[in-house]
Design a protein that fits this description.
The structure is a single chain. By secondary structure, the chain is mainly beta. It has one domain: Porin (Beta Barrel), CATH 2.40.160. It is built from one helix and 14 strands; from the N terminus they run αββββββββββββββ. The strands form two sheets. The protein has a twelve-stranded antiparallel barrel with strand order 1-2-3-4-5-8-9-10-11-12-13-14. A two-stranded antiparallel sheet has the order 6-7. A hairpin with a 6-residue loop joins strand 11 and strand 12.
Length: 278
């Protein structure tokens, strides 16, 4: 009886040695990253001169993506807020709300018909400062933008995507005239809708394990007027020094005739704490 049992155990060894099949990998991709930067300097009887200053910024960005054999759906967002204080009170240095959702169909290896919707605004009041006063020039959902698009996307490389589609852009501005038609003199419009074309090109390159570069160029062409072209070019270089510390350099170029007649520029360099939630 013992010999039979040992013989059965011996026969079962190859089966026990086989690896259990690993569960299939999820087709979901997700990321959620926060970044906090803080700097402070103070002086007392410092003969070389200087001015007390405190700056902080908090950023959050992430995405969730589902990939099928013939379809893809991705929702991404960025939130950011920051303040700076020098010899006066705290003033805003960063204020951003952006959400975007895209659904696409894989027609060929390169071409993908898509539909998308995006939302953009800010958290709090924006001010124009003079030597003696300050005036509110923007606020939450003033302006607020919604853009819906449908068109064709192209993905020649894994790190580069571009898309072009017919779009509707809605502008909301209850108090600050971002939606006002200057040709209409009898009333102030608080909402407007513009048909047009939207083009978005995104790239994401990793040069090594430490440094990566992200860029996004967004262009909206209004059908009503050729000269009413809105554009935003965002650039970010990130150097991951350690698991929790990184250096960021950002440069942004914006042109929106509803806001300002000339282009707007913003750049920032920061060293901060980085935390991955997912």
């Amino acid at each position: 009886m013992i010999k039979i049992s040992l013989f059965l155990v011996f026969l079962s060894l190859p089966l026990l040695a086989q690896k259990k099949p690993s569960p299939p990998k999820s087709s979901w991709k997700k990321e959620a990253v926060s970044n906090f930067n803080f700097s402070n300097s103070s002086y007392r009887d410092w003969k070389a001169g200087g001015e007390d200053a405190t700056t902080w910024t908090l950023k959050f960005q992430g995405f969730i993506e589902k990939d099928w054999n013939k379809k893809n759906w991705k929702t991404a967002g960025k939130l950011g807020f920051g303040m700076t204080k020098s010899d006066k009170d705290f003033r805003k240095s960063l204020d951003e709300i952006f959400l975007e959702s895209i659904g696409s169909y894989k027609l060929t290896k390169l071409l993908n018909p898509y539909i998308s919707a995006s939302l953009q605004s800010q958290f709090s009041k924006g001010y124009k400062y003079t030597d003696s006063s300050q005036a509110v020039i923007s606020n939450f959902w003033d302006p607020g933008y919604l853009i819906q698009s449908a068109g064709l996307g192209l993905k020649p490389y894994e790190q580069l995507t571009t898309r072009l589609g017919f779009s509707l852009k809605e502008t909301f501005s209850p108090d600050h005239k971002f939606a006002d038609d200057i040709e209409s003199t009898n009333k102030v419009e608080t909402f407007k809708i513009e048909p047009g074309l939207e083009s978005i090109t995104e790239s994401n390159f990793k040069f090594n394990k430490i440094i990566k570069y992200e860029s996004k160029l967004s262009v909206f062409i209004n059908f009503k007027s050729v000269d009413e072209v809105d554009g935003r070019w965002e650039n970010l270089i990130t150097a991951q020094i350690s698991k929790y510390i990184n250096i960021n350099f950002g440069y942004e170029l914006l042109y929106d005739k509803d806001m300002f007649d000339s282009s707007q520029r913003k750049q920032d360099l920061s060293i901060g704490l980085n935390y991955n939630f997912i």
